[in-house]
Specification:
Helix content: 40-55%
Largest sheet: 2 strands, antiparallel
Strand order of the largest sheet: 1-2
Radius of gyration: 32 Å
Structural class: mainly alpha
Oligomer: single chain
Strand content: under 5%
Number of strands: 2
Distance between the termini: 107 Å
Order of helices and strands: HHHHHHHHHHEHE
Shape: extended
Length: 289
């Protein structure tokens, strides 16, 4: 009995080993084919992406293909590069240039459908009734999608890295402009806040900068400047977003920009209800001066 059990056990072990060896051999072969297919697929995708995203050195025919649908309606648009660089409309604005409106009657349903497909649609269509900017957008553009902002204004710094700042184009310029004083307004906000007692810091530390999603962002210098470089060259170590009203000091001068003030009076037509010494034209908000 013991010999029989031993033989059975030996046979089972041998069968398991043989099965494992065959399976191992098969698995070694299959991944090689799969890996080779994956590599081939990756190369094909890479090549296609390269063809689609390569802007510098684009042929005139390719640029025309990327502008075909746009040119059906938007005729007479001058070339911003003077013919030196070949670029399609969608390279800067986005949208779908493959949608054609050629031969469609303007204002017809087919025309409007093609227009809607070719154009990037806003999140708040009720505010963008025409191609003109809204009358009083305030922070509306910060709530819009980056794709739509790029469509209406490729030079907006939220999306300029996808248009003007694309690799091979104006990358350095877009990077520098993003942190310039004319963009952040650090000198304006710093002087207003410090001189009116809102902040105790003489070195400017507040300014405006917004990310692709429209949210305020903090700018950080790298490498960090020394105190001497900040004092003599104005090189700031960082810039923070403007403070929210409710967490800033009560004397925050920026509260004068809050909505709620009375309409400014017309020259030569005074308002009897004006508070003495505080003319309405200087009263932007009930919290104001």
């Amino acid at each position: 009995m013991k010999k029989t059990h031993a033989l059975k056990l030996s046979f089972i072990v041998a069968a398991v080993c043989l099965y494992g060896f065959v399976s191992f051999a098969d698995t070694n072969k299959k991944p090689e084919k799969a890996d080779s297919k994956k590599e081939t697929a990756k190369e094909a995708v890479k090549e296609t992406a390269s063809q689609e995203t390569q802007l510098w050195g684009m042929s005139a025919e390719e640029a025309l293909r990327r502008s075909a649908g746009c040119n059906d309606c938007h005729t007479g648009i001058e070339d911003m590069h003077g013919g030196v660089v070949n670029l399609g409309c969608t390279d800067c604005h986005g949208g779908d240039a493959s949608v054609r409106a050629q031969g469609l009657e303007k204002g017809s349903q087919a025309y409007e459908d093609a227009k809607k497909k070719g154009h990037v649609q806003p999140r708040f269509p009720e505010s963008w009734k025409t191609s003109a900017n809204p009358e009083r957008p305030y922070d509306l553009t910060l709530q819009e999608s980056a794709e739509f902002i790029r469509f209406v204004n490729p030079g907006d710094l939220r999306v300029a890295h996808l248009s003007c700042g694309t690799s091979g184009c104006h990358t350095g310029d877009v990077h520098d402009v993003n942190s310039s004083m004319m963009t952040t307004g650090a000198m304006l906000w710093g002087a207003a806040l410090y001189n009116n007692g809102t902040t105790v810091f003489k070195n400017y530390r507040f300014g405006e900068s917004y990310g692709p999603d429209g949210s305020p962002r903090r700018l950080q210098s790298f490498p960090q400047p020394t105190p001497e470089e900040t004092q003599k060259k104005g090189w700031l170590p960082y810039i923070e977003p403007l403070q929210r009203w409710e967490i800033s000091q009560m004397g925050n001068i920026l509260r004068t920009f809050e909505r709620g003030g009375r309409k400014a009076a017309e020259i030569g037509n005074p308002i009897p209800e004006e508070v003495p010494g505080k003319p309405t034209q200087n009263l932007l908000s009930f919290r104001g001066l």
